[in-house]
Structure formats: structure tokens, C-alpha cells
Amino acid sequence: MDSNSKKKALTGLTHECGVFGCMARGPWPTQLDVPQVICLGLIALQHRGQESAGIVTSEGKCSKKLNVKKGMGMISNIFNDESMQKLKGNLGIGHTRYSTSAASEEINCQPFVVHTGHGALAVAHNGELVNSEALRRMVLSRGVGLSTHSDSELITQALCLNPPEGEEESGPDMPARIRHLMQLAPLSYSLVVMMKDRIYGVRDPYGNRPLCLGKIVPVDHQADNEADGWVISSESCGFLSIGARYVREVLPGEIVEITDKGCKTKDIVPRPEGKALAFCIFEYVYFARADSMFEGQMVYSVRMQCGKMLAREAYVDADIVSSVPESGTAAAHGFSKESGIPFAEVLCKNRYIGRTFIQPSTRLRQLGVAKKFGAIEANVAEKKIILIDDSIVRGNTIGPIIKLLKDAGAKEVHVRIASPALRYPCYMGINIPTTEELIANRLDNIKLADHAGADSLAYLSVEGLVKAVRWKIKKGKNDIGHCTACLTGEYPELPDW
User: Which active-site residues does the annotation give?
Assistant: First the structure.
């Protein structure tokens, strides 16, 4: 997010992004079509950002030249056959971005590429630096110029500075530079950093932003221990579709180096003393795709468990349980299973309309509801319905949906939200609106139900969400921690502006 937007935190929006990287086994040219793999990986991450995208590749030989293609819009509109042919290489990184509308310009498209005394360097970033102003002052004081207000460019330039340990005699010590950056800025980011012949994956010490590793397996599956290449991604969704197997998450604070020989850990940077892990709990609630893996469990399973917890906390008698597709569907199945009330679809979704939450204009969000859903009258007429959704943010869309169902003959509509009420802005890189925009700060459950035309409305409790998320995590107690700042106002760290 740009710093001007941060200073207007009461009126602006933050953003979310997706990062992806791929490295083929062996030198260029390789049988693995790395640019195509990256493009498909970004398409799988399209839900994390729809305003701009970019891919940078390298043939692994020339330190001065990287192949770059970036642009505004959806991935399928940016990368055509002609542009893909120019993205030669056996390694590369990509980025898909959602931003504030004021910063939605091509100059802010990632990955950022800079040319240093040691060669070209490319960086893609998901997250937001909570102490970006202090880091910006430090970088500027070292004589480095910045052309944008982007945290991502700031990270890129900070990596160009020599680490404090001293001179580098045989080229840049990139792990030392990354470690230095992480000590200066412990929150919040997942990074993919590319030099001519290697990629570094970096996750902040709090583990706030997700990042995972995958292995591209041979098509014939004969050489089980071999790999055609390696991928690194914000989410594991899409791994199977590119012939990759999920391996593991990048650990909080870990610096992973990927070369044409494989992956290895270069360092693990600890959190500040006394600080707990803080993986964003909203990834489970909304942002991640349902087939992604976090902390050893599939997001779909967690959402289903949230529905079960919601049924225990906020049961109401009804004829059917349904959902706002597809965001509430997993939780609705969980609610149905726990309550014994049958599940039935009541809304038909037009799949060619984008997600209303991350469109920048309120007017577009409101218009989007009418174009996005139709009611299935045969399942709705004369029915008492429990309608499950994953979250309520501004409250613009739930009212029109309820009206749609009641116009179709629903006798009652009881809204159940499979997450707690959103009350606080996020300073760590996800698209949660400001305090005034969040409807839970203006209307309690009874008033919101009345405002939306629902017969009742209830949220999952914070305790219920945390319990559902941690239900199947197989870790020690000290290895589990989730950021609930947008729900509780308890931030891992506060911004420095």
C-alpha cells in the first residue's frame, strides 16, 4: 500500500496480492516451460488480485538482463502467445496484485526489477510493512532514490544495500541482505526474490502472510525422487493442475534458496522476543481458495468446521440450510451436518461476475449483487432458510440477497456468518475496510438483521473461529498463533505512521 493511503487510513483501503516462482531442474534450455507454469500459477492465484500482474524470467546465464512483462488487468488479458515467447528462461517469478484505486497504475506493477552493481534483481511481495516509514527514511538516508510509494519497491531497494557485516568480496550475499531486511522490518510479507540463477523465498518471522513450496513431478511419475522443477507460491491451490505436489510451507522467518539443483534453507530469522506467531486468520475465512493447504489442513475443511461451530453457537429451527455461493458453501455444509437440517441451494451464481468485496467502487458492489445471483424458487418458496455466508464487511450485499429470496417466496431468512464481526482495519496487507465502513461498528446483530430484512442474524464468536481453525493443526502449542487483529484490535505490531 502507498504511504499516502496509510496516512488516510480512516478513509482508504489496503490490498492483497499473490506471488509465484518456478525453477526448472538443470540449465537453460529445459523441457519445462517455466513461463507457462508461472502464468498458470498466477491464474490459480487470480482471486488474490485482479488489477495488475507481471512475470520476470531469466535464462540463468546473464546477470545484467531479465525478461519482463507486466500490465494492468486480468492475467489472461496481459499474457498472450507473443508475450509468453519473449519470456524465455529456466527460472522466473510472478505477481498478481490488488491495490487501492489511487495506486492502480502500471508503475506500481510487480515484480519490481532493479539493476545493481552485482546484476539485475527482481522482487515480488505480498503483504504490507508496518514500519515502512522508518525503513523508507533509512533507505533515503543511504542515498537511494524511490520512484513510487510502494512498500514493494522499498523492499527491493533495501535489498540493494550492503548488509552491516561488511564488504562482499565474491558477489552479493543475498541471504545476509535478506536477513538484514527482516531484522529491520519483521512484519508483514511473503517475498520471492530472483537473481540470474536462483530464487529466494522469504516469509516474515510472524508467519503473517502465507508461502509454500511444491515439487514439479515428471509426467510419467517414474522417477519419484527426482523433480522436473520446483515452485513457490502464496497458496498451494493450482499445484495439481501444473503437475506439482505440495511439499511444505515456508516456515515463519525462513529464507529458502531455490536453484536448478533443488531447495534448501539458508536461514531462519527469529521473531522479536516475547512475540507470538501471527498467521492471518482471515486467510482461512475468506482470502484463500478452498483447495489450499495451510498448517497441514485444507482450507475447505476449516470452513466446514466453522459451520459446525456456528451451528452449536447460533442454532435456529428452519427447513433448509443454504449458502451465499461459493464463499459460504463449505460452512453451510458444516452447519447442515451438525444441525441435521438438510442443505439445499437457493442462489444461482453468475460465474462471469467478479468478487464484489474487492471491487473499488461501492456503486459497483451494489450493482454487482443484482447481476451476480438468481433465486432458485423451487427450493425457496414457503421455506424457512438459514443462509450462511463467510463474512459481512460493509453490509451492502446481504440486504439485496435477502430481498431476492423473500421475493422468491421465502417464509423466513435467518442469516448466519461463519466468522466474527469485522471491527478493525488491517495494516498488514489484506483488503479489509476502515473502521467507519465496517457495518458491525454501526449496527449490532438485531439492528443489522432489521436493516438487511433478515429474521435474525448471528456471527461465529472469535473463540469459535480460533477453535475451528486449530481443530486439526498437528503442532506444539508454541508453534501455533493467529492474527485476529481485524476482529479483536489486538495487532502483532502497530504501524509507525
Answer: 17
